[in-house]
Design goal:
By secondary structure, the chain is of the alpha/beta class. The chain has six helices and seven strands; from the N terminus they run H-E-E-H-E-H-E-H-E-H-E-E-H. A seven-stranded mixed β-sheet has the order 1-7-6-2-5-3-4, sandwiched between helices. Helix 1 packs across helix 2 and helix 5 crosses helix 6. The protein starts with 6 loop residues before the first helix and ends with a helix.
């Protein structure tokens, strides 16, 4: 098993996220109390804009270890992301090192952040990869759906892909749920069923979050 990323690093990353996100924008956080205060947990986040990860890191009630594509690890950003306990992943195949590090986070009772869509897109959870189901079923950790809304629909943006400074961004945390069926099965069929179960819950949460926030 690969060495798990540093919990202390993730705590530092959370403090940095709080400073940056609340300094540059106006996050409105709803349902953070639904995130389990301790024990392994997976936060499944919709992903449509560049700040979604940092925004959740700065608004979640616990330090997070996000799975982040290797393409983001360029120049000084690479050592920085390693230093704040994030997990580098090669999306081109089964990255056993990343898998081991992510499972290590959960084995140690930490919080793992995942963009289940695999990359930035519409942010509507329409197409999920099987990775989230694997981690949830393998570890038994509950999944908390997270919707980030308003991160790209505001006028006056100074930087493409970022919301206007001091604009409101809503972060809505949903209720934790178990992705597995309780049997402990890890077969391909069980993972496929878990993926469908997860997609249904995440899609429903996103719809609820939009109604709640008026987005």
């Amino acid at each position: 098993m690969s060495e798990a990323p540093s919990p202390k690093g993730a705590a530092v990353g959370r403090r940095i996220g709080i400073g940056l996100m609340y300094g540059l924008w106006k996050p409105r956080v709803l349902g953070a109390w639904k995130v389990p205060v301790s024990g392994p947990v997976i936060l499944a986040v919709n992903h449509s804009h560049n700040i979604d990860g940092p925004m959740v890191m700065g608004t979640a009630p616990r330090p997070l270890h996000f799975l982040i594509k290797k393409e983001a690890y360029v120049g000084p950003l690479g050592p920085f992301l390693n230093g704040i306990g994030q997990v580098r992943v090669d999306r081109g195949g089964a990255d056993r090192t990343a898998i081991g590090r992510a499972l290590g986070v959960l084995d140690q009772g930490g919080a793992l952040g995942i963009f289940p869509e695999g990359s930035r897109g519409e942010g509507d959870f329409a197409s999920l990869r099987a990775g989230l189901a694997y981690f949830a079923v393998r570890s038994g950790a509950p999944v908390v759906p997270v919707a980030v809304l308003g991160s790209g629909d505001t006028p006056g943006r100074l930087v493409k892909g970022l919301p206007a400074l001091k604009s409101r961004v809503d972060v809505v945390f949903g209720s934790a749920f178990d992705a597995g069926d309780g049997s402990g099965r890890r077969t391909r069929g069980a993972l496929d069923e878990a993926t469908v179960r997860i997609q249904d819950r995440l899609t429903a949460h996103l719809a609820d979050a939009k109604r709640l926030t008026g987005r």
